[in-house]
Amino acid sequence: MKCHGAVIERKQHRMDCKGGLILVNSNKIPVVKTSMIVYVSRSGVSEQLLYLKSLGVGAVILEGLFRHDISPTNLTEIDQSLGTLPQFTRLITESRKAGVRVMLDLCELDLFEQESGNDTDVWSGPSEYIQYSLRYWLEHGISGFGICDTDAAFSAKTLMEWNVLIQEFSSQDDERILMVRQTGNTLPALNVSSIAVNGSLVELVTKSLIPPTHHPLSPSEVAEAMEASLQMPQGNWPSWTVGGGVPLELQRAILVLIMTLPGTPIIKYGDEVNPVQDLDQVNQPLALFHSLSQSRAREEALHFGRFTFLSFNHSMSSSGLNSTATPPLAFLRSWGCVHFLALFNLGSEPHTLDPDWAPSLPEGGVFVTSTGLDRYGPVSLRSIKIKPHEAIVIKLFESDNS
Fold first, then answer.
1. Among 7, 216, 296, 341, which has the highest number of CB atoms less than 10 A from its own CB?
2. What value, to the nearest 5°, has the Cα angle with vertex 396 and ends 20 and 224?
3. CA 163/CA 183 separation, integer angstroms
């Protein structure tokens, strides 16, 4: 691993840091995609706008705004139990002023089950009515829409129609995007599938890191799911959500993973992003979230950096590692001469890494954060002991002769 001179390749990304926030001056990477996105499914969002912005959240996706028990779905009428339309439009205005974009979750709605009659009899069909509804919300300041790949809307024809409409309202300073939630191992085939994935039709593809199951996963099963996800081809890399059930003891490690992987972190509000915490307990998920959020805001490598999965030789990755123990996982995020190492021990036994576990890496670095928030100062990679259920982030030091 060599670094010539002190020049860091920035490609087309220029960044200004103001506190914990990142402003990206690039028309190829929308602000919504480079910030964190939070799913919100409850009222009271307006009171949390400044709080969410302080965490580095760039957009909220509102769930449950439209009633699922009514078919066909009326996309211009929100669930009255959540508030009135004037209240909602005021929320959009306040959010935009605070720098937090609002998106609408349309997953699993009966969008194409429109029947003639009442307000829909003036439309030639469901597609025309949906186009009208999307335009209605875009004119009110909505920054995008999310659908599932199992929805009828996930088709080449519909995606192209929606994309034309969204681009009509999108600009470099006010991007509007379409997001697809991937529910399976791969996206369903489309005639323009390669276009849909690379962002021409769909700006953001999200996928669950942990597959949904009918039973809580064991630490070893979580580790297997993580390893399979981390080794997928980068050309198809999505933005990750947590997804399936994660054991309580691994939730902080998974939070570290979500916040250090490439792509946009997709967080569920009320879990990691909780405005209430016990001030007597510093090792709360919120404190860890703050630490990770600040690191992402400061470091280009954690936004745009190249991802390298580090394979362990299990016979030498840990002294005393038995055949049934969960092996550690690790990866690098690199941007020019700057490298971040993320280490994960999801098992119930500590791991002392072999001194020669990664001979190509610099020998030393400094702790950035850890699940216990109890690691500080410089560290040698040749003498790391990872505690059970622990995740560690280290900023590596390049030596003059490396």
1. 341
2. 85
3. 21
Q: β-strand 21-24 against 15-18: which pairing, if any?
A: antiparallel
Residues of the chain falling short of pLDDT 70: 1-35, 41-44, 69-73, 113-125, 191-200, 234-236, 244, 270-285, 313-324, 399-402
Domain spans in the chain, listed from the N-terminal domain onward: 31-304, 306-396
Query: pLDDT tens across 12-33, in order?
Result: 332 222 222 222 222 233 445 5
Element (H, E) at 38: strand 36-40
CA distance 246 to 381: 29
What single letter denotes the amino acid at residue 21?
L
CATH of 306-396, one of 2.60.40.1180, 3.30.1330.40, 1.20.1250.20, 2.40.50.1020: 2.60.40.1180
Taking the complete model, does pTM exceed 0.85, yes or no? no
User: Which CA distances in Å does 33 have to 167, 205, 252, 263, 275?
Assistant: 16, 10, 23, 8, 23
Q: Look over the chain and give the mean of its residue pLDDT values, rounded to a whole number.
A: 77
Residues recorded for the chain: 402
- Residue pointed to by tokens 């920035």: 10
**One-letter identity of residue 344:** F
Nearest to 109 by CA among 80, 82, 148, 77: 148
Residue 124, Cβ density class (10 Å: 0-12 exposed, 13-18 middle, ≥19 buried): exposed
255 touches 209 (CB < 8 A): no
Give the span between the Cα atoms of 52 and 36, in whole angstroms: 10
